Amino acid sequence: xxxxxxxxxxxxxxxxxxxxxxxxxxxxxxxxxxxxxxxxxxxxxxxxxxxxxxxxxxxxxxxxxxxxxxxxxxxxxxxxxxxxxxxxxxxxxxxxxxxxxxxxxxxxxxxxxxxxxxxxxxxxxxxxxxxxxxxxxxxxxxxxxxxxxxxxxxxxxxxxxxxxxxxxxxxxxxxxxxxxxxxxxxxxxxxxxxxxxxxxxxxxxxxxxxxxxxxxxxxxxxxxxxxxxxxx
Length: 232
Known about the structure:
- The protein is α+β, with helices and mostly antiparallel strands.
- It has helices spanning 33-37, 79-103, 105-108, 118-123, 125-130, 207-212, and strands at residues 18-31, 44-56, 73-78, 156-159, 165-172, 178-183, 219-220.
- It is built from 6 helices and 7 strands; from the N terminus they run E-H-E-E-H-H-H-H-E-E-E-H-E.
- A hairpin with a 5-residue loop joins strand 4 and strand 5.
- The longest helix has 25 residues, at 79-103.
């Protein structure tokens, strides 16, 4: 599982020359001793598993579902683990881009106070103008649009204004992508999404943001010293 304390520089391995590609999300059924002990309807449970492929960057294709067909490594994790990493990654990426735009503010305001050359700032000028940066400073994460979604990962209880409650957790949908699901039980085994609209219970959940956060392109694993994202 994703552990912030473990993922420090001293524990990192170099994957220079490789790119990570989201391949699919699929349900894997297994026998569960815990389900038997709980007296559930079925002893078989389904795990929502994300498959990722580590491809040589030179041969990784965004348009191929699995990215590449040779020289790769394949990895699997739960949808909750994957979305936890994705949301934290998108949060860091957004922070670094906002910091870059702020550093280019001198160029955008027609003065010479920019930390970057004019060509670099100009290349991202339209994107900076369209981006809503919600940080008061580089360490303020309280309004993070991405970190707020961590509250809905891992079978979390939600309640509406009438006192009715369900549980939410990410799951593999019919298109092999990840969606947020609504469940009747605290183990997130009895799916309720076909009967009840999730928006009644998760008012601030934006399905577009949740979908867009999922990286489907080949994601370069190499280190970068260049703006606007650096080593997000």
